[in-house]
Design brief:
The chain is of the alpha/beta class. The chain has a single domain, classed as Vaccinia Virus protein VP39 (Rossmann fold, 3-Layer(aba) Sandwich), CATH 3.40.50. It has a seven-stranded mixed beta sheet. Strands 6-7 form a two-stranded antiparallel sheet. A two-stranded antiparallel sheet has the order 9-10. Strand 6 and strand 7 form a beta hairpin. It is globular.
Length: 186
Amino acid sequence: MSKPQKEQLGSWPIGDTKDYTFIETGCNKGHTVSKASMVFPVCHSIELNDKFFKFCRDRFREHPRITVHHGRSEKILPELVDQVTGPICFWLDAHGAPGAPCGGHVPLISELETAIGHGHDRDVIAIDDTRCFGRDARDQMGDNWLEITMDKVEGLLSDGGFGNIQHWPAKVGSCWHRSGVMVAKR
């Protein structure tokens, strides 16, 4: 798995994406899922925040590859995963935003357990905002991340058969992530 180059559009941490489903938690304004739709045939994004959901629902209303779901990722993600028989590229990014917190709860551990449980040998899990691990990030992200640590996340991934774990500082696809991204592959 090589690190994508800054200038490459749609350079994801997997080879051919034609049989993958992309599932994102936390769509905000839809930048990541929009870029993912350029290389993945089926894309789902889950958003809890009413304002962001309505924005993305309207933005992608006519998009043939993107479906936006409204609600808690802990409920919707398992339902989506149960419907997919092929490999999934998970982009776990559900958390609050300044002025739009998720009630102080970051659902990453629950999402990670669901993703690991899918069990396809070609699944890929990408986790955004690793800079927040182990921190009270309410000032930046609207939520408290104290119970989510790098050791805990890497342990879950390793125990779930994801031995190829990489940390990328800035970019996946053509989306910049100022916070760091962790990518794990079986």
